[in-house]
Structures are given as structure tokens and as C-alpha cells.
Specification:
Order of helices and strands: EHEEEEEEEHHHEEHH
Helix content: 25-40%
Distance between the termini: 28 Å
CATH superfamily: Electron Transport, Fmn-binding Protein, Chain A
Largest sheet: 6 strands, antiparallel
Structural class: alpha+beta
Number of domains: 1
CATH class: Mainly Beta
Number of strands: 10
Strand order of the largest sheet: 1-10-7-6-2-3
CATH topology: Pnp Oxidase, Chain A
Strand content: 25-35%
Number of helices: 6
Length: 209
């Protein structure tokens, strides 16, 4: 990811929290020399100082065939907002966009019901705990045949993060007064995403005062 110095964010705890809060990610792999992407919910966990991403794909999705052999990339994004050049002090300015993105790299390890029933059940339970804990009793109340059929139709994976890149593009390359003006304008927007970016900018400004 292109990360000018002003926008680089390398605080692992901060990036981890962002990934957890924005865990519907884009997973990219190279299959037969062609980029392949899936949009999926992930469980983001930290074990010691290691971050792992856990999820699954449909067995018919060819992307999993790239697992265990080549590096994959999980892209996490949050709110984003257009920034008008009229918010800057200098007349000769150009439009831009503010946003936050985190790129996480690693080699996914395959989990299947036939080879790793305990890991498959653990993966499913982790997904349920993360996204709808109240559903767990319902899931375990289903017949074994139905649950096995569902799990045989997917390929789970666990991806240990080996490289993490964060980009917080929040007008840090502008003057303090311009950052404040942009933040205040976004906070007054009718667009929830713009207000969210304004809040991120406000927090950044306050943390650096």
C-alpha cells in the first residue's frame, strides 16, 4: 500500500482494534496468476503478540486453492469522505479523499471438516460468538447431518499475520487550522460516513495537541 510518511500508522494495538471494528474485509489471493477477491466477515484475534484472521469460503470458490502456498491480503476499510479544496487556506488546492485502511498479509492455513473436525467446529463457534452469540444454541440444536452438510460445503482458514500496514489519511499533511476546519465541516455533514471521518480527525488532532 502506498503510504506517505504523514499517513503511516504502525501502532499494532490501534490497527488490531480497527480490524475488529471493521471486520467485513476483502480477501485477495492469486489463483493461476490472476488476482481473486472475496468479500467476507472475519474473526480477528490476538494470541500473545500474534494477530490471526479466521474465516471461511464456499468450497466452490476457487480462491481457497491458493491457500497454504502463496501470500494472501486482507483489506479492512472504514468510513471515507470527500474533502473539498474550498476547505483549505490556499486557493490553488485540489480535491482529495480522507479514509482509513489496513492491509494484513499472511498465508492462510486450510481447515476442513474431514481433516480437522475440531478446528472446523472451533472456527464456526468463533464466527457465531463474534457475530451472533445467541445463535449458538440454535446451531448446536440442529441435526448432525444438517450441520455436517453445511460444514462440508465450506473451506475454513486461519491466517497468521506476517505483515501489517495501516494508512490513516486524515489531512495530516495540512496545517493545524486546516485540519480543524476539515474536521468541523465533516462533523456537521448529513452523511454518517463523513461525520465518522470527522470524528477520527478530531481524535487525531486532540491526541497531537
Amino acid at each position: 500500500m502506498y503510504r506517505p510518511t504523514a499517513f503511516q500508522e504502525d501502532n499494532v494495538d490501534k490497527l488490531f482494534a480497527f480490524m475488529q471494528a471493521n471486520s467485513f474485509a476483502t480477501l485477495v489471493s492469486i489463483v493461476n496468476s490472476v488476482p481473486c477477491a472475496s468479500h467476507i466477515p472475519l474473526v480477528v484475534v490476538m494470541q500473545g503478540d500474534v494477530i490471526k484472521l479466521i474465516g471461511h469460503l464456499a468450497k466452490q470458490n476457487p480462491q481457497w486453492q491458493a491457500f497454504e502456498t502463496t501470500e494472501s491480503l486482507a483489506i479492512f476499510t472504514g468510513a471515507h469522505a470527500y474533502i473539498s479544496p474550498t476547505l483549505y487556506e490556499k486557493h490553488e488546492s485540489v480535491p482529495t479523499w480522507n479514509y482509513i485502511a489496513v492491509h494484513a498479509y499472511g498465508i492462510p492455513k486450510i481447515i476442513t471438516l474431514n481433516d480437522s473436525p475440531e478446528l472446523m467446529n472451533k472456527m464456526i463457534d468463533g464466527m457465531i460468538d463474534t457475530y451472533e452469540a445467541d445463535y449458538k444454541s440454535h446451531w448446536h440444536g440442529l441435526s448432525d447431518g444438517f450441520r455436517d452438510g453445511m460444514m462440508n460445503g465450506i473451506v475454513g482458514f486461519e491466517m497468521t499475520i506476517t505483515r501489517l500496514e495501516g494508512k490513516y489519511k486524515l489531512s495530516q499533511n495540512r496545517s493545524q487550522s486546516e485540519q480543524q476546519n476539515v474536521s468541523n465541516t465533516l462533523l456537521q455533514s448529513s452523511d454518517p460516513a463523513a461525520r465518522a471521518v470527522g470524528e477520527e480527525m478530531k481524535q487525531h488532532i486532540e491526541a497531537n495537541e
